[in-house]
Amino acid sequence: PPDEPELFNALSSRLRNVFAEDIESSDGQSCLRHMYDTPCDSLRDGRRLTIGQIIARERQSPGTFNTELDSLGLRLMSDGSLFVPHRNGQLERVYYGKAWAGGWKHSMQRLPGVKSAPYPVRVSGSKIRGLLIPPDLLPSLDADAEADPPRPP
């Protein structure tokens, strides 16, 4: 049988890796959730919607909220993913004073399925680099979307 200290060292090393991956994924989920939960500056029908609600409504009715998404540097792609820029003044405001200020890219990249866009994406007339958030991590409208924006899994 393997020596107990060797077995313990091997197991503890693996457990540290598992916990580190879990913490990184949790950080990415918290970062994405913070963006979704942040109220957008613009009003629609006298209501201030969250970024998550705007994304969900744009997914349901494409073209309806392009202006709001553009101001944040966000764009829904034809494959259903969400483009999130590496840098954007409005997103800097969303994350101001938070652990992800200036570094949301690094936290979001840890989420499953998130990848760098293979090419710059045109948003508000400029081509910029960013990440692609897969559709399964995006909010969608459901029966209670008016009260609470959906959360990533």
Mean model confidence by pLDDT? 80
Strand content: 15-25%
* Structural classification: alpha+beta
Name the helicity range.
40-55%
Q: Which geometry do the CA atoms define?
A: elongated
> Over the alpha carbons, how many angstroms does the gyration radius reach?
18 Å
Order of helices and strands: HEEHHEEHHEEEE
Biggest beta sheet summary: 4 strands, antiparallel
Uncertain residue segments: 17-24, 143-153
Sheet with the most strands: spatial strand order: 3-4-8-5
- Total strands: the figure is 8
Query: If helices are DSSP runs of H or I spanning 4 or more residues, what is the number of helices?
Result: 5
Amino-to-carboxy terminus distance: 41 Å
* Oligomeric state of the chains in view: single chain
Considering the chains and any ligands shown, give keywords for the structure:
two-stranded antiparallel ribbon; 4-stranded antiparallel sheet; single chain; 5 helices; 153 residues; alpha+beta
Characterise the protein shown here.
The protein has 153 residues and is an alpha+beta fold. 41% of the residues lie in helices and 18% in strands. The chain is built from five helices and eight strands; from the N terminus they run αββααββααββββ. The strands form three sheets. It has a four-stranded antiparallel beta sheet. Strands 1-2 form a two-stranded antiparallel ribbon. Helix 1 (4-37) packs across helix 2. It starts with a helix and ends in a 20-residue tail after the last strand. Mean pLDDT is 80; it is low at 17-24 and 143-153.
